[in-house]
């Protein structure tokens, strides 16, 4: 019996990882230079801007980052005065994170830059192609989490 060969350049997980890393690196370089933020930190800032107050565990779920990465990013943001922590009245074992006024101001600076970068990445992609990519990514995410077969 002949074993099938795996060609990385045609292997979906590899291609998604390479594309994700390329985009994240491009954004990260800009955010690090301008705002002093690492990738996990700007992801937390964005989720906190969308969520108001949230537990570190839920941040991990939303960002798909492990507990240690979330903890380190949150600690760095707290130390910079961009994120505040408060007791969680619903669960005495956890705490809630939220953006401070400085964190919200930083987010307001990041948004135009993020949207401009996204527009540049999509400059040669039609609206129909963007919509199709979005649908396909959502289907792949659901399939990867066991919600649907592809």
Characterize the structure shown:
There is one protein chain. Helices cover 65% and strands 8% of the residues. The chain has 150 residues and is mostly helical. The chain has a domain at 24-114: Arc Repressor Mutant, subunit A (Orthogonal Bundle), CATH 1.10.10.10. A 3-stranded antiparallel beta sheet has the order 1-3-2. A hairpin with a 7-residue loop joins strand 2 (83-87) and strand 3. Helix 2 (39-51) packs across helix 4 (67-79).
User: Sheet with the most strands?
Assistant: 3 strands, antiparallel
Corresponding CATH architecture of the domain at 24-114: Orthogonal Bundle
% residues in beta strands: 5-15%
Strand order of the largest sheet: 1-3-2
Number of H- or I-type helical stretches: 6
- Please report the first level of CATH classification, the CATH class of the domain at 24-114: Mainly Alpha
Shape: globular
Rounded to an integer in angstroms, the radius of gyration calculated over CA atoms is 18 Å
Q: CATH superfamily name of the domain at 24-114?
A: Winged helix-like DNA-binding domain superfamily/Winged helix DNA-binding domain
Distance between the termini: 27 Å
Low-pLDDT parts are none
The SS-based structural class is mainly alpha
Element-by-element helix/strand order: HHEHHEEHH
Rounded mean pLDDT is 91
Named CATH topology of the domain at 24-114: Arc Repressor Mutant, subunit A
Number of strands: 3
Q: Please give the share of residues in helix.
A: 55-70%
């Amino acid at each position: 019996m002949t074993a099938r060969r795996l060609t990385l350049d045609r292997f979906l997980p590899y291609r998604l990882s390479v594309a994700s890393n390329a985009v994240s690196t491009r954004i990260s370089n800009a955010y690090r230079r301008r705002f002093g933020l690492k990738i996990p930190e700007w992801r937390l800032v964005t989720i906190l801007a969308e969520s108001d107050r949230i537990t570190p565990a839920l941040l991990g779920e939303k960002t798909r980052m492990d507990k240690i990465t979330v903890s380190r990013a949150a600690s760095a943001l707290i130390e910079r005065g961009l994120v505040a922590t408060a007791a969680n009245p619903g669960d005495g074992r956890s705490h809630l994170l939220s953006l401070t006024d400085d964190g919200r101001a930083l987010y307001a600076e990041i948004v135009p830059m993020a949207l401009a970068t996204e527009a540049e990445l999509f400059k040669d992609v039609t609206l129909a192609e963007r919509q199709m990519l979005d649908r396909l990514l959502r289907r792949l995410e659901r399939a990867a989490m066991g919600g649907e077969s592809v």
